[in-house]
Specification:
The longest helix is centred in the middle third of the chain and has 28 residues. This protein has seven helices and no strands. It is mostly helical. It has a domain of 81 residues. The C terminus is likely disordered.
C-alpha cells in the first residue's frame, strides 16, 4: 500500500505534523520511551487552552459569559476534548502517525526556508 501524502489544507495534517515534531523533539532530548505521551499531553493541553480562548473571545464579543462557574459546561468541554482524542490518549496514535514517513522525507530546513 502506498504511503499517504500530506495535504497542506487538511487540519488533520497540521495536528499530525505538530505531533510528529513534538515527538521527534522529545525523543532527541531524552529517548526514554515517553516521547509519544509527552507530545500527546502537550497537544491536548494546547487544545484545551484554544477552546478556553475561543469561549473567552465569544464572551467578549457577545458581552456576557458563556460558561458560568456553576455550569456543567466547565466539565463537559474538557470531556468532549478528551473523547475526541481518546485514541491518542490510549496510545493508539495511528491517525497522527499516518503521515510520519511523509514528514521524515521532507528536506532539512524546508520550513525555515519558507519562513525566512
Amino acid at each position: 500500500m502506498k504511503p499517504q501524502r500530506a495535504q497542506w489544507w487538511d487540519p488533520r495534517t497540521w495536528m499530525a505534523f505538530a505531533y510528529w515534531e513534538l515527538k521527534t523533539i522529545f525523543a532527541a532530548i531524552s529517548d526514554d520511551g515517553w516521547s509519544d505521551w509527552k507530545a500527546t499531553t502537550i497537544l491536548l493541553a494546547l487544545e484545551l487552552l484554544a477552546m478556553a480562548a475561543l469561549t473567552d473571545a465569544v464572551s467578549v464579543i457577545r458581552g456576557h459569559k458563556l460558561i458560568y462557574r456553576s455550569s456543567p459546561f466547565i466539565y463537559i468541554v474538557p470531556a468532549i476534548l478528551i473523547l475526541l482524542n481518546l485514541k491518542a490518549i490510549l496510545g493508539k496514535n495511528e491517525s497522527w502517525n499516518r503521515l510520519s514517513t511523509s514528514f521524515e522525507n521532507y528536506p532539512a530546513g524546508s520550513v525555515l526556508n519558507l519562513v525566512c
